[in-house]
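Exercise 7. Predict the joint structure of the components listed below.
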Amino acid sequence: MLAIARQRILGQSFQKIRPAVSVLRSYSSAAKKITVREALNSALDEEMSADPKVFLMGEEVGEYQGAYKITKGLLEKYGPERVLDTPITEAGFTGIGVGAAYYGLKPVVEFMTFNFSMQAIDHIINSAAKSNYMSAGQISVPIVFRGPNGAAAGVGAQHSQCYASWYASCPGLKVLSPYNSEDARGLLKAAIRDPDPVVFLENELLYGESFPVSDEVLDSSFCIPIGKAKIEREGKDVTITAFSKMVGYALKAAEILEKDGIHAEVINLRSIRPLDRTTINASVRKTNRLVTVEEGFPQHGVGAEICASVVEESFAYLDAPVERIAGADVPMPYAANLERMAVPQIEDIIQIQESEGYNSFAFVDTVVCAGNASVNN
Amino acid sequence: MALSYLRSSSSRSANLLRPLSSAASLRRPISTDTTPITIETSVPFTSHQCEAPSRSVETNPSELLTFFRDMALMRRMEIAADSLYKAKLIRGFCHLYDGQEAVAVGMEAAITKKDCIITAYRDHCTFVGRGGTLLEVFAELMGRQAGCSKGKGGSMHFYKKDSNFYGGHGIVGAQVPLGCGLAFAQKYSKDESVTFALYGDGAANQGQLFEALNISALWDLPAILVCENNHYGMGTAEWRAAKSPAYYKRGDYVPGLKVDGMDALAVKQACKFAKEHALKNGPIILEMDTYRYHGHSMSDPGSTYRTRDEISGIRQERDPIERVRKLVLSHDLATEKELKDIEKEVRKEVDDAIAQAKESPMPEPSELFSNVYAKGLGAESFGADRKEVRATLA
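Solution:
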């Protein structure tokens, strides 16, 4: 209620004409929809076609057509020399992939889920991420590590962890996490073309979801720049950052919040490392409130880094403490009701309107914000 | 040592008078004489799942003198590094290779720079064998700009990509799958070259080694796994770490060869054999029976887990440089004085390189942020004081 009052006081003059959201702009009359799975498959196909140095390796990527069918058809098209089924030996095959990258090839190593990447994490961090630095630029490592990350459905504690914050803390790695089909295509293509090691965190539950894509996205040269977040929905009351599946939840929550007069700006991070601090901070300076959403464990998570960054760069602009919405601080339980409690739901995001910033501060806001607004706008 | 002087059969008639005249003309420091000589290795090779190569090794005076010079250089370099470390000019880790020189030198004689070598942290001499300079070694050890990794790597992270030397790795055993990956890439690129992945008796028990070996055998990769068995994994003797210290047999379905790693000629023969094998039949294991005089690193005296008698015994009976010296002298390829002159030259080279390395400055502070990525994309990086020390990565 008070939030709405504030809005009215700020007045029409400060209300921007909302530009067409970029997704809307790209709608054509014949908007095609593709699943994230198709997006990833086509990206792999095109990059393998364009560059003979690109090859795939992982468990079941070849004859099984991919554990989640992401690599379907690629063995038939490119042959067993370029699509390699590996034994269940992550440390060994990841090391082999990194060694091949040292020599100049461009491996795309699939982890059936990123939980298994822990078996190979020494090669990801010590053999891949740090090599360019330790060798003062002699040994670059153009490798992509990709696979599903985070919670699936009912797979239990050992198969549900989100590794975004672990990998994103390491200098020398780039860490990407797509949300929709456009992200999946553009970011995977960019990752394969990038000369540095990229950790590409997909989401099993998104593989089957369809999203509209423009002709530009379907073009074989389409690439999304690494290190740039995307504002999926513009707003002025609160900034919500999210990545992967949580972007979808944040967008749905934003629609619901809209009905209560809270206009949320939803930022799809796309790139966890490098983190687009510029876009996040610019957004928070506009909205004055920040909520970070992630599936992973809260402690030392992605939200913690975003919060720290905003406190460092935009403290004066914050009207309320930063809020973190993250997975529960417990190993993932199996029972459906407990699992539901262990992962953020749309209701958890909507709950932000109940917190302090939206109620008790609002009156102070109306006076202070009007003043600030005239300075900032 | 049994040495037999067998004239090469192809030149028997033409060269009847050769040995005398060439011996006379050989009396200069570095011989360029490539008259074949055949020398027997100290001991025959022991093989596993393959037929051992002959213990008669073809060499020539030039090669033997090069062995002598190169090993003397490596020996002198490592001893000098010891002194620099004690003078606190080298910090952190420093793992010295003296005693093991024959492996580096014999391997290079059998291969080209198109073949790849990857090793662990005891990498100074391997780097020099691949063509690295003394200046690059000492400057890197002292953390200076002229170092092979511009001072950013240190003792354990020497690289020379233009000679296909891929480091220099600190995590025990990691270099083996990496080496198999190099072999994969060579096969993928149809380069007709091989990779030598070196590891120690300590690393020989690593699981990832067997994972990589399994894949290499499945995919017929031209990978040669070389166990530099110096009998101690840091302070743990091989019999305390391995249920089966017959490392050349541990490949099971992968053939192996046990080699006297103190005999440069045996090493050369084994590597030549292994390269031919790997190009045709996939992976093979070479176990080099060798020894390090120093402890595991500069912080290990090396005498708490082995006796001084053992160390001095090996030095007296199996030292790789002494072995070549005796060969050169007994074959009249050079005089004692000439060899001593070589050693003096080498000592001077090392001293000059150290002096030059000391002149090299430490890296610029901006280098803290360079090479984090090959393509930095304008990302920001921060120092400890995030407001003062930050950079945009190019």
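Discussion. The first helix of chain A runs from residue 2 to 10.
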